[in-house]
Amino acid sequence: MVTQGEVMGLLLGACPGFRPEYEAYVERFYGPQAPEKSNPYVDGAQLNAYLVKAVGEGRTECFPAIFALAERLLDEDDQDVQNWVVVGLLEGLRNHLSWTSLSYDVFLPWMGPQSRAWWQQLIEPMMPKDG
């Protein structure tokens, strides 16, 4: 079983290009106290910013692994891990996308069925209403 404390390590393994940026952020934000003070929701925002920038630049090589991992984590027994995927990753991506001209559909090609279902719930309130 994966715990919430292990999620960022798994994500770094799935997207090694993010590691240098993440390590610089950890040093800058936490300093030497990083292992004791890290917050997966705050740290996840760094990944979200990286993924939104990467998709905008067409650098999507780690997306299959990231979204496959997200799908796997949604199957975990740990409710904190599932919540992190929905709120920390998917809702975070939605929020970062809202600051860009990119479509909310931009990540759909890599999402599995569970991620897509949650994504639709998250973006529905953001979509313009007809009529």
Distance between the termini: 47 Å
Structural class by helix and strand composition = mainly alpha
Strand percent estimate: under 5%
In this structure, how is the largest beta sheet organized? none
Number of helices: 7
| Total individual domains | 1
On the 0 to 100 scale, the average pLDDT is: 91
Element string (H = helix, E = strand): HHHHHHH
Helix percent reads 55-70%
Based on CA atoms alone, the radius of gyration comes out at 15 Å
Shape: globular
Low-confidence stretches are none
Number of E-state strands: 0
Textual characterization of the structure:
- The protein has 131 residues and is mostly helical.
- The mean pLDDT is 91.
- It has helices at 4-14, 19-29, 34-37, 40-57, 63-74, 79-97, 113-123.
- It is globular.
- It has one domain.
- Helix 2 runs antiparallel to helix 4 (40-57) and helix 6 crosses helix 7 (113-123).
Secondary-structure blueprint:
Layout: H1 4-14, H2 19-29, H3 34-37, H4 40-57, H5 63-74, H6 79-97, H7 113-123
Helix pairs in contact: 2-4, 4-6, 6-7
Please sum up the structure shown.
The chain is mainly α and 131 residues long. It contains 7 helices and no strands.
Which structural traits does this protein have?
131 residues; mainly alpha; 7 helices; globular
